[in-house]
Amino acid sequence: MTKTIRWICEKCDKKWIHPVEKCLYCNGDIKKQIGTNLKVIGVTKVHAPSPLHPIVPYNILMLGDENGNRMPKKTIKDYNVEDSYEDKADSSENTVAVVKIKYDFYEAVKEALELMGDVEVNENTKILIKPNLAIPGYSYIGICTNPRVLAGLIQYLIEKGAKKENITIAEQSFFVPLEKIAKKSGIDNVIKKFGVNYVDISKTEFEEKQEREFTFEVSKIVNDFDLILNVPVIKTDMIVGIDGAFENLTRFLSKKTFDELAKDPKKAVSALTLLPKIFPKFITIGDASIGMQGNGPGMNGVPGFYNLIFAARNPVVHDKAVQEVFCLRKLPYVELAGKLGFGDISNINFTGNELESLRRDIKQPIGSKLIKN
Amino acid sequence: MTKFGTSDKLSHQLAYDASLAALNNADINFNKIDAVVCSTIEWFFSVEKQRHFAGMLSSMFRTNKPIIRVPGGCAGGGHALWVANQLGYDNVLVVGVEKLMTCKSDAILDEFMMAMDSRWEQTEGMIAPASAALAAGVYLNKFPDTTTDDLAKIAYKNHSNGFLNPKARFYGKKITLEDIKNSKVVASPLRVMDCSISTDGAAAVVISNDKSDIDIVGSDLSTGRLAPFESKDMTTWDGTVITRQNALKQAGLIPQDINFVEIHDAFSIVELMAYEDLGFCKKGEGAKMIRDGVVNLDGKLPVNASGGLKAKGHPPSATGLSQIYELVEQMRNEAGDRQITNNKVAMAHNIGGVGGTVTNHVLKRV
């Protein structure tokens, strides 16, 4: 839920809107103050478009909370002073929660999950987290899943009752040793900090699964968990359009399957479309804190400051929402998945922020023969 | 200072022109200058493609003397003057310049928005007019006697003054009160004509330990948080209050001693709030200042005789020094048709961001 966040010194009550760890004045410890009882104390309707906010008019509300703290909030909906402001959580399949990160990745991940109806976790829940560690890259260039997002997610799961022993991070790279990527991205520090398990998928057993004309070799690891959390970093992709919920699943496949699909991009798109059918149900948490635009998903892409977390139960809904928010051209695999009934992409329910308040241009991936205007 | 408006000159050329004029006015040449303090923002979207402005000025001034660049947002000029005052040199040239009009207006909005907090404000669409509009909304709710007509009158007063200023962007251009009231809404309740006008331009000042006809008797810089939603009261900007108190204390003066003022009227509401924050009236009584004509050119306390940012124009880093230029012209009785008669003690109030950096300078004719 939309909330104000402040960081307050426990000793001298100094207050920050930015996260700090110790007080500069008295070296006191810092506690977080969260405000959720939000009321509109000011409104302006903006009519001037700007590059990050091209759709006008939009409203900016000044929200005040029960602690006397304030925060601005962009919305298309009209409000009056004194109105209450509250986001509605929705656990339906066609819901995507989109949350802006107010410096605090834990709060943003928590908010996104709560808005999409939350995850059920207890001390026995076995949780598999699949980040994107396909190519080596530092955390600030949008190549890999942001370690702060991953840390926020793990912290949230543990606070909800999960045991660290039951949380596993799994990934493989088809190009570079995984340890190298984990180190460069900073993910290895997160794994060490929380003491969670870490698995290189390439070293797991694979089993064949047939779906339509395709035979996939799929890691058996996906069968061992109660909850799978798919955590791609949102990147443009010259071949398939977006590295999102679907593309991130490809690294549950064997290298042999991946190489076969990579030979024929058109077939790859068809196969990509079918991936959600061959895996147990999962939730996608799209990391668009720092994503990628242009000719991604590798070093030819350009980092983009998006400052968003997406969360959805349905991967088709997730990737369609990403395409719509960033005004990207239609994605063949998403359209096909929609036609096959894997998700209702004609009626996506945005919560946290409205689509029209989020929409902005980013650099399109150019050169894909698969994606037409 | 150069004329504010749209110029075909580059930043360093504008800075050179303003510097030459200031040196001539001070009747010294560059050999006597010990250091230069300059301010410019260096716009990302600009087609100038020029960075390292201090190095560029070294080339223009053919010098190896220290040149310090002070980027202070829209308070760059005032900030540079305050820094120059702290240095302890005998003679310092202070120059502020902006070459803004090579950017499209949406790019300018985006650039200005970068002075807002990136996560809390920019991502929520907080362009600069929206930030001022939210303050205006809260102000109008808190003080319902004040109306948008009062804001329009402030803009009209500044346009009337700018009409008379040959250096102003709107010099000789007639703008009526109806033009202002009927202009398009940018961010409700603020209209286009409640907003200052971005321009190119440069202004320069020479400060010296030598005897002069005008003294800087108060000079203060303070900071007031990047995001105005953090302030205790959204209708008051702490930086304005603190710099006023400090500058007047240095000068041994009270607000009522000030004869005329240049206020940072980035938006009409900002000028209204400044009447109060600068101590010229009580909180909630700013509208009376404009209704009663107190702040008019022939009023008891003329405000923005130059036309202000509204009508003279707002090349951000040059604005603060152009305010000093106006004070000096007025004190020397060189202001032509907009000359103020009671002109011995004056104040310049310059804001960066939405109150994040504020300077206040008090000048006195010797």
CATH superfamily of the domain at 11-103 in chain B: Thiolase/Chalcone synthase
Using the 3D structure, state the CATH architecture of the largest domain in chain A.
Answer: 3-Layer(aba) Sandwich
Q: What is the count of distinct domains of chain A?
A: 2
Assembly type of the chains comes to: heterodimer
In percent, how helical is the residue content of chain B? Answer: 25-40%
Main-sheet strand order of chain A equals: 11-10-9-14-17-18-8-19
- Run of helices and strands of chain B: HEHEHEHHHHEEEEHEHHHHEE
Give an account of the 3D structure.
The complex is a heterodimer of chains A (373) and B (366). Chain A has 373 residues and is α/β, with parallel strands linked by helices. Chain A has two domains: 4-85, no CATH class; 95-358, 3-Layer(aba) Sandwich (Rossmann fold), CATH 3.40.50. Chain A is 24% helix and 29% strand. Chain A has ten helices and 19 strands. Chain A has helices at residues 105-115, 147-159, 178-185, 187-194, 245-249, 255-262, 265-278, 315-325, 332-339, 355-358, and strands at residues 4-9, 15-16, 30-35, 38-46, 58-64, 70-75, 84-85, 95-100, 127-131, 167-171, 197-200, 206-211, 214-219, 227-231, 235-237, 241-243, 283-294, 301-312, 349-351. In chain A, the strands form five sheets. Chain A has an eight-stranded mixed sheet. A four-stranded antiparallel sheet of chain A has the order 6-5-4-7, with no helix packed on it. Chain B is an alpha/beta fold and 366 residues long. Chain B has a domain at 11-103: Peroxisomal Thiolase, Chain A, domain 1 (3-Layer(aba) Sandwich). Chain B is built from twelve helices and ten strands. Chain B has helices at 11-26, 53-61, 76-86, 105-113, 128-142, 148-162, 177-181, 238-251, 268-277, 286-291, 308-311, 316-331, and strands at 35-39, 67-69, 91-98, 185-187, 190-191, 201-208, 214-223, 260-262, 345-352, 357-365. In chain B, the strands form three sheets. Chain B has a four-stranded mixed sheet, sandwiched between helices. Chain B has a four-stranded mixed sheet with strand order 7-10-9-8, sandwiched between helices. In chain B, a hairpin with a 2-residue loop joins β4 (185-187) and β5. The model of chain B has no long low-confidence stretch (mean pLDDT 96). The interface between A and B is medium-sized, with 30 and 34 residues.
